Here is the input.
Amino acid sequence: ADEFAVVPIVARDSSVGVIIADNRFSGRPIDDETVELLTMFANQAGMAIENAKVYENLREQMAKLRQAYEDLSQAQDRLIRAERLAAIGEMAARVAHEIRNPLVTVGGFARSLRKYHDGHRACNEQERNRVRHELDIIIEEVRSLEGILAKVIDFSRPDTPMRQQGLVNNVLDDTVDLLVAGASHKAIEIEKRYAADLPVTSFDVRQIRQVFFNLIQNAMDAMPGGGRVRISTALLGEWIEIVIQDEGEGIPPDHMRDLFSPFFTTKVSGTGLGLPVVRKIVSDHGGSIQVESEPDRGTAFIVKLPVVTSLADVEGATATTE
Ligand code: ADP
Ligand code: MG
Here is the structure.
């Protein structure tokens, strides 16, 4: 070639290369206009290279961010799992403890009955009564063990509620119906103050019924001499609020911290599993629970459930608890 032109390719204020053009094929002289065109082309190329670099950089940053996010959510998962394992471990120890006493009783009475049976003695009225009495105790203790196990199983059930559309007020009515026989017996009055405008929302009916059952049962337990349980519902924006209020003994401030711990109970025949199960179900539904209590005046449990109208909302609703 007898003529050539050289233009730099500039990207980010420094030259990243050059374009060399000659006239070997055309044989025509390289004029100013051609050099200008070449310069424009080099500028475009420079910008394209710069963009590509910025893009590449961005992609690296994005990849790093994504990695960081994944690490974080894995760490969070591990934390949740560890917390749950700790709770399950604690629970296993307490279950073993809870189950020991009834088992000792059952074993003792069963041995005594076997001894009686082995003796082949004629059965008189008094002995028959004793056998019946001991069998009744065995049956009662086994029933109590079954109750403890049922609650443990409930606690370790998978989280995802089986949602269906329903009305909170109806579930409350059903629950009250279940409890009403015991209520009239103990001179307990149940007052309903329902909001009429509650929307249909989706929740696991069986689980939410259990929440209400446990809370109303606790309210009734707190008033051994009778009294009034007030059940109210309200729509607060995107939330349905359910308040179960009693006029019972109240909760001493130093019990507040342990209230939701598995096996915390102040009752002779309590399991202490009601409130932990309640809290787990409520949080699985993306809701929250609060307690307000005044010793000797009464206690209110305040449950808030998100209004979930379509299944697309479910993920959003669950995400808020995490
Ligand atoms: P349980 O009813 O088997 O004792 P819960 O987990 O349901 O177990 O309740 C734990 C404890 O919290 C109860 O033993 C009681 O001391 C206290 N508690 C719960 N609800 C009330 C209430 N409405 N009023 C007073 N104390 C309550
Ligand atoms: Mg209870």
